[in-house]
Amino acid sequence: MTRQWTAEELGDTFDEDEERDRVGPRILVAFLSDLGAKGVEVHGVQRDVDGEGEENLALALSVASGTLYVHFPGVPLEWLQRRGDHESDWQTWRAYNYSDAMFVQGYEYFDWDEAVQAAAERAASGDL
Q1: Where are the alpha helices (DSSP H) in the chain?
Q2: 3-state DSSP call for residue 63?
Q3: How far apart are CA 36 and CA 23, in angstroms?
Q4: Residue (of 118, 117, 80) closest to 100 by Cα position
Q5: What residue spans carry the region label Disordered (predicted)?
């Protein structure tokens, strides 16, 4: 059984950063839950502050095979999971921000499920 993470437990990851604290825990809990459903056990979570731009979340996830690096735009979770339903929001976001992509180990993804699948495959293969 994989560990079940909670937003409260992960809230400390974004301490002192009000903007990221609003969206970060929900994105992270959803991503960790989806990884867990694919059999990936995440043992630890650390914010990768050096990897963050102005409007993104950068995280280092400790998995059995090493460290998995993921980046997300700092937007509501619903935008990431159902991108097509929020196209006008994304148009506004892209006008002011560098990227609207999610990244797994430096590879760009625009689809939530593809990003989760790529992370699961990387973690399972040890290709980190």
Answers
A1: 7-10, 18-37, 77-81, 87-96, 112-125
A2: strand
A3: 20
A4: 80
A5: 1-20
